[in-house]
Amino acid sequence: MLKKNKIAFFVCFLFFLAYSTLSVVRHNHFGSFGFDLGISDQIVWKYSQFQLPITTVQSYPFTSIFTDHIEFIYILLSPFYWIFNSPVTLLLLQAFMVSFSGIPIYLLTKKRNINQFVGIALLFSYLMFYGIQNAVWFDVHSLSFGAAFLAWFIYFLDIKAKLWTILFFILGIICKEDIAFLTEIISLVYFIKRKDKISLILIVGSGIYLFSIFYIYFPHFTQDGYRYQNEGELLSKLKFSYLYDNADKRNSIFYSVAWFGFLPLLIPFYILPALADLTHYFVFANSIEAAQGLFMHYRVTLAPLLILPTIIAINKFKILNNKYVALYLILFAAFFQYYLHLPLSYLTKQWFWREPTSVKDINAIIPLIPPDASVASQNNITPHIAHRHEIFTLWPEKRDFKYNSPCTKPTCNWLRWAGNPSYLVVNTALDWDIRHLLANREDYIDGLDNLEKAGIVEKYKQNGSAVLYKVIKTP
């Protein structure tokens, strides 16, 4: 396979280098977050130590990760920590899986007798897709692995390789609880077109898994039920208008189909899986606004779902199968890359490569934290020290005081955490903003000062703007 498709492998390898660089440099410069890399890293580390997946980073700590999402894939990834015990391992695995999911996409173009120039252009368009770029840039997500497995699942289902189809079906649905909804619709599309047994089996299998997760497990085995749905029942308060009722949703729809030169619209039936993907975020989870825009990881699954109708359209309309359409596809991807200022462009920016001045300060402080100590941590420091049983997110807030106000006012800036950590580690440099501090910098520093004045913490070590506190009592 390698010799026959060496150009495709080379392209995928280049994207692997680019995406690895993006994610690892960002992480090393303390640009990654406790949400989500810190959570994922702590869970995978615990699996590698044969411990239960109890997260303390999450906003509802001391709970199983399975009360939030069903992500069995992290169990399979945990042995890699026996080789290289670092969150960088997860970043590299994500970049690898996503980049080399381009291989089944390229193989699909060959199966459909698409011109090699067009096939390579489709591969570039797929791997440059804005949803993939944003997912790789923004920490680590089980959804990214799910999108990669979906690409292989679609390919093997298309060529009727039953055992491989079932393997990647299983790998896909164990990545995240909602992937089975996508395999359900993909399988339905193929069954309607082919009336084959394997597609019917996958429809039934997806349906059973979805019912078990959403109507048995979450309602009856978790305290709060499924957190990512509209208020009430899973299928309550559904309106078709939710699909396009705000600018974020409309932008997501437009840029998704426009990325591939609007070619998916030529085969509307095969767009159904992509429409289902958008529907389950925009309609079933209409209240989750963070999942509706362009610039997080939620659009990553659209890449394999939209490249399929693009390939089928080029195969069906023979006039499209030429080098001019290859150029057309590349120009669309290049234009949106520039217009949306997507992460791959960061590789050309000086600010991306420049290490923030405070990084050395943090790196000097971290070794002073005992390896088994419980710690409350700033959001962007958490992923670097998450290999411990208890690490808690630092939450800025306002607190009222009737007596002994540390700020001499009735309401003070304050910081809180869960549990009873022994240490608190922060960095208040100008390099960080609300994404890293979870508050504006002035309120954050004021909250720290009030904790000191109230005798909650005392400085233990300081290196520049990085400070390690000993926690005296729970705030």
Topology:
Blueprint: H1 6-28, H2 34-48, E1 54-55, E2 63-64, H3 73-77, H4 87-100, H5 102-111, H6 116-128, H7 130-137, H8 142-158, H9 162-173, H10 179-194, H11 197-221, H12 247-259, H13 272-282, H14 302-316, H15 323-339, H16 350-353, H17 358-365, E3 375-377, E4 391-393, E5 395-400, E6 411-416, E7 423-427, H18 434-437, H19 441-453, E8 457-463, E9 466-471
Parallel strand pairs: 3-4, 3-7
Antiparallel strand pairs: 1-2, 5-6, 7-9, 8-9
Helix pairs in contact: 1-4, 1-6, 4-8, 5-6, 5-8, 6-15, 8-9, 8-10, 8-14, 9-11, 10-11, 10-13
Written description of the protein model:
With 475 residues, this protein is α/β, with parallel strands linked by helices. It has two domains: 6-350, no CATH class; 358-471, no CATH class. It has helices at residues 6-28, 34-48, 73-77, 87-100, 102-111, 116-128, 130-137, 142-158, 162-173, 179-194, 197-221, 247-259, 272-282, 302-316, 323-339, 350-353, 358-365, 434-437, 441-453, and strands at 54-55, 63-64, 375-377, 391-393, 395-400, 411-416, 423-427, 457-463, 466-471. A five-stranded mixed β-sheet has the order 4-3-7-9-8. Strands 1-2 form a two-stranded antiparallel ribbon. Helix 10 (179-194) packs antiparallel against helix 11. The longest helix has 25 residues, at 197-221. The protein is globular, with a radius of gyration of 24 Å. The termini are far apart.
